[in-house]
Amino acid sequence: MSIAKVIEVLAEGETIEAAVQNAVRDASKTVKNIKHAYVQDIQAEVDDGRVKKFRVNTKLTFVIKDS
Asked: How confident is the model at residue 2 (pLDDT cuts 50, 70, 90)?
C-alpha cells in the first residue's frame, strides 16, 4: 500500500498547459515523487481585451511511502 500527500500550488503561464507544467516543474524542485496533477481552477488575466496569461490552481499528489 502507498501513502500519498496532496499539496495545492498556484502557477502562471502563457497557456494553460504551460501553467500546469510550471506548477509541476517548480514544485518538483522541493517535492519528490509527484504522480498526479489535478487542475482545480483556471483564471485568465486580461489586458486591453486580450488574454495576457493563465493562472492555474493545481493539486499535486506525491507518494511519501511505498510498500
From this structure: confident
Q: What is the DSSP letter of 9?
A: E
Domain ranges of the chain: 3-65
Q: How long is the chain?
A: 67
How many other CB atoms are found less than 10 A from the CB of residue 43?
13
Q: Which CATH class is domain 3-65?
A: alpha beta
- Tell whether pTM > 0.85: yes
Can you tell me the distance from the alpha carbon of 45 to that of 67, in angstroms, rounded to the nearest whole number? 43
Question: In this predicted model, what pLDDT tens digit does every residue of 23-37 receive, in sequence order?
Answer: 999 999 999 999 999
